[in-house]
UniProtKB/TrEMBL annotation:
InterPro entries: DCD_C, DCD_N, dUTPase-like_sf. Pfam families: DCD_C (PF22569), DCD_N (PF06559). This is 2'-deoxycytidine 5'-triphosphate deaminase. It comes from the Bacteria. Residues 1-119 form the 2'-deoxycytidine 5'-triphosphate deaminase N-terminal domain. The gene is dcd. Gene3D superfamilies: 2.70.40.10. The lineage of its organism: Bacteria, Pseudomonadati, Pseudomonadota, Alphaproteobacteria, Maricaulales. Signal peptide: none annotated. Residues 120-285 form the 2'-deoxycytidine 5'-triphosphate deaminase C-terminal domain.
């Protein structure tokens, strides 16, 4: 695509594509490379037929955020990214923009997830999260993505050598400097536990607290961290000017929201890459 876009209430996505936004069409069958710095629009296999009173919200899956792959979902007549109103009936598209690593994608790859909400947002408990920049022994406190790294194949789980893509970060004085435009994986100082009756989403505390963005895929399922203490992994991008981040500095908040009913399966019961996690890279990288 020439650029990202929103259809707005008066247009379908096809109307927009016919207006000159498309630069080139790519066939994903057999795999296609999506390059950094480019914007792609891909139709999703799934569509929605929402009843009145049920709306949809989307965000990247955890592994998508940890690859620094920027995604946003749109539908026909959409006035906002990642939000579709109650009663929406139609197809879905995902905008994909790899920021650091080029990716090899195929039909069936899962980059985004959808949450369904009945009625208005009912936010509950809000927990402030701070960054952990103290590690035991010679362990790193975080990872910084390398530029000009190899390709990440989305189908190859646990198959990529971490040091080909990441450099470890150390903070002997309990602080690091975030460079503008660089991408970091850090962890929260606090453990996170999500009750079975709740889900939670990571949100910014306030834009004025620092020159960085601290989350891309901050959704936590019911049961995350229960029985297996886990930290929140922070996907951090520096922006505008270099910024000193210190141990214990508040970086995000966790907003809980009640589930509509009893869940069928708690997070991690059927296997998970991130239950009980500490500082952890995405599932595509070797442990």
């Amino acid at each position: 695509m020439r650029a990202s876009f929103l259809p707005g209430p008066a247009r379908t996505v096809d109307d927009c594509l016919a207006s000159g936004l498309v630069m080139h069409e790519i066939e994903l069958t057999g795999g296609a490379v999506l390059e950094t710095g480019c914007v792609y629009l891909v139709p999703l296999m799934e569509s929605l037929a929402l009843p009145a009173g049920l709306s949809a919200a989307m965000n990247p899956k955890s592994s998508t955020g940890r690859l620094d792959v920027f995604t946003r979902v749109i539908g026909n007549n959409a006035a906002a990214f990642d939000q579709l109103p109650a009663g929406y009936c139609g197809p879905l598209w995902v905008e994909i923009s790899p920021r650091t690593f080029s990716i090899l994608a195929r039909p069936g790859d899962r980059l985004v997830q959808v949450r369904l909400r009945r009625g208005a947002l009912k936010a509950g408990l809000s927990q402030v999260l701070s960054v952990d920049l103290q590690a035991a022994g010679n362990a790193p406190v975080g990872w910084r993505a390398k530029r000009h790294s190899p390709l990440v194949d989305l189908c190859r789980i646990g198959a990529h050598a971490a040091l080909d893509f990441w450099e470890p970060l150390y903070a002997p004085r309990g602080q690091i400097v975030l460079d503008p435009g660089e991408f970091y994986i850090l962890a929260s100082r606090e453990a996170v536990e999500i009750p079975l009756a709740d889900a939670a989403e990571m949100a910014p505390i306030a834009p004025e607290i620092g020159e960085f963005r601290a989350h891309y895929a901050g959704f936590f399922d019911p049961g995350f961290g229960l029985g297996a203490p886990a930290k929140a992994v922070l996907e951090v991008r520096g922006r505008d000017v270099p910024f000193i981040l210190e141990h214990g500095q508040a970086v995000a908040r966790l907003v809980h929201e009640p589930m509509a009913g009893k869940i069928g399966s708690a997070y991690g019961m059927n296997g998970s890459n991130y239950q009980g996690q500490g500082l952890k890279l995405g599932k595509h990288f070797k442990a």
